[in-house]
Amino acid sequence: MPFFEAINDKFFNPFCCQNREIYFECISLLIEKSKEIPVLYETDARNCLILYLQNCMYSIETENIGEEVSSRRTPQENASSILRYFRVCGWITSQEIGRSGDNIASVSAYCRKLVDAIHKIFDTNSNSAITNHIFSIYEILKSSFRRDSVRTIRPYSNILLPLIENECDLKNELLILKDSVQEIMRAVTKMSDANSLGQFFLKDELLKRFFNDYFFIKKSGLIPSYIASIERMLRTLRDSELYEQMIKEYRDLKNVDELQAKEKINHQFAELDSFISLEYDQTMGYIDKKINTYYNLYSVRMMMVLNSGANLENVLNQLLLFIKDLDKEERDTVIQQISQSYRQLQVGYISRKSFERRKKVNPNTKNAGIPSDELSMEEKLRLTDELLTATPDQYSMDRVKDYLAEKIPDKGQVSVEEWGVRTREDAMMIASSIIYSGSVGFPYDVVFEEGTVETEVAAISRIKIKRKKYE
Q1: Residue 461 CB: number of other CB atoms within 10 A?
Q2: Domain presence at residue 380
């Protein structure tokens, strides 16, 4: 089945939106969350996204993904909208009620593979990737020669294909390692001060990854022995019965004749032999050569940075050659003048601050303190009124009455389902009406019913708010 016929038409749409970083982080969090629990329900997925959006370092741009997503809406509303959008795009499976009664929010298989591939390609935290591929090739070959090995049942699919995949990944990692040297050298040549160099070495993740991989390979004496063992086992594998079984399996899988199958298998073995025997050593030799160049470049660059862009070694060399050709008297005069110049450089500058006389502190000042006089009752009432006027109660009885007057229709009552609780303010107004119910001056009664109602904000008891009838 063609790939684009197997996936949703909107599968790649989240990567083209303004908030694509947020959507990618959200789906990555859902994938990690699904690894921690047996079944990922919609409530757990929404809570996970709400927590992320509350602490998100990206600003949410206003856009329409079937419904509006923006920073003006609450995290609860945005999380619900994002989940529905993921389901429309095929990132989350279609609605299915689980045992708990909640909808299941499983991440689709294609989405998992896509996100894992993106992380694998672009994540910089891939330390030990080179050595892991070498170990994998070694373990595959070693297990192939064990007695009653399962890999020998399908030698092409279980031995040769995994070897080729690890060889391609290893080749890519070596190319990244080689490019890293050039990036480091290019960055070092642009540094103009010692502080920039220090910050570069402290913060740059490229350096950390490069030196972790490179120096582990160079210091570990096991890596050359592993490479030699891999070369030996590849030759043994090609001369064994498994070679003929690989040709037969490839012929059945690809539906080709024996000559074409043998040519393909030979080409793949030749590629493995060429890389392990030649390309690996050549690439590591190139990296060694670049490392030496890098250290020389770094040394010269640091010397130039610390000496105002001048190469001190060349300057001293020219000075010594100049003094060498002078007479003894002239040589002594030049050395004496250089000595005087050096002493003058060691003298600090004198400014007006050096002659300023510090003012004496008056020891007879009175100590500061809090007055012990109490405020009068009128003053306390005035300050209290000012404080309450400056910071009014957001959920006072008057505000709740005005809010309910707008919400309750002409029939005089409203339920939680009819209310449509969408924001935190709606939930707080319902809670306030329950508190004020029965109070003098509050014209509404609250009637509790059985069960709860699941809203976008929280699970709320099933209630009805009625307007009181005065006789």
Answers
A1: 14
A2: no
